[in-house]
Amino acid sequence: MLIPIVAHPLGLNDLFFIGGLSSRQMQLKEALVKYFNSKYVFLFNSGTSSFFMLLEALKMFSEKKEVIIPAYTASALVVAIKKAGLRPVLGDISLKDFNIDLNALDAVISQNTLCIVVVHMFGITSEAGGGLKQRYPQLPLIEDCCQALGNSQVGCLGDASFYSFNRGKNLPTYGGGCIATNNEAVARNIAKLLENIPDAGVIYTAAVELKLFALALAMRPFWYGLLSPVLKNLKERPTPEDFSVKRYTDYQAAVALSLLRRIKQASRLRYYNGMLIMEALKDIDSLILPNISVDSTPAFNRLPIVFKDLKKLEKVERSLRQIGIETSRMYYMPLHHLFDLGYKKDDFPNACYFAQHLLTVPVHPLVTEKDLGKIIEVIKKAVK
Question: With CB atoms counted within 10 Å of each terminal CB, which end of the chain scores lower, N or C?
């Protein structure tokens, strides 16, 4: 038995369908328009592809080349920005909510800034997001909601947002993603670009179907524990230097529709589980927990905990593994340590500190209250 760091309930009823699939993409788009409260939704084969297409759409308005992103986030953002022929510009994160620091942006915004990307890491609403549009009304604001689907406070703060439906996300269809926007001009550009995007193809579609059946099995703690040596190798692949942009498949759309019907319940559980652990650990001085505002209900993809003492972090990591609970360090390095972006190694001190001292624990719907109690007990014992 091993509880995975990220998972989502995925049953056989989500994978078998009666009747044709040809109408499922349109049904999914209509459901997501309603769910996101957006006028337009566009589906692609990944969250990275969705971000790339959004950048391509923004390039049709402007010749500016710089895209501002947090110094600590997924490396795939840098890959997409470079593929679009643009330059990543980094801003340090805040150790309050672990997202980009609003006060760090003044120093990095320039006349060449194309857009600002706010990432809602771990499903937590970025505190900077709400104030950015008022502070910089002339700049397009893009929200990266790849880890935050289910958080109703995100996705509507700027000009457009994008989501991921990959295997470790809050609505997993083993690949896929989307753009949501209320901006008619942006939507028009994306629709124009979409005309030249190829279908996924028969081989890709068949492979995704097989992977989804494997994912449904692997998410269960018994099978995950049994298969973890193999799955570990799959997880530790480096970020690819390039990617292909394709359309979403009809089969994945059908799976997404099935999962979307239960997303509110799953999101409530993610919030409840995360807040239960945070409430139990809130008075421990040797830990830094994310600040969650009273009007925010994050759909935690996982719960981030910063340990001031690295030895205690390592002890918690080992102890939880021994009792069958997987943890993750997430991204081991900030972006300027992964890519040559023209920065010094000691730039962005918060991002550097965070990458070194972070441990994430599972809070997904397959984690039981008994499991949560074990997580709390292990951490308290290690840090006392």
Answer: C
Q: Residue 157: what pLDDT?
A: 87
Long-range contacts of residues 283-291, Cβ cutoff 8 Å, at least 24 apart: 284/379, 284/380, 284/383, 286/312, 286/383, 287/379, 287/383, 288/95, 288/357, 290/96, 290/97, 290/98, 290/122, 290/124, 291/96, 291/97, 291/127
Say yes or no to pLDDT of 333 above 80.
Answer: yes
Of 137, 89, 143, 142, whose CA–CA distance to 121 is shortest? 143
- Residue 304: CB partners within 8 Å, gap ≥ 6? 98, 121, 122, 124, 290, 330, 358, 359, 360
The CATH code of the domain that includes 290 is 3.90.1150.10
Contact 194, 32 (CB under 8 A): no
Q: What is the mean pLDDT of residues 17-45?
A: 90
**Does the residue 66 lie in any domain?**
no
Q: Which domain holds residue 272?
A: 263-383
CA distance 216 to 235: 16
- Residue 99 covered by a domain: no
- Does the residue 306 lie in any domain? yes
d(CA 170, CA 159): 23
Strand partners, 93: 100
Amino acid identity at 109: I
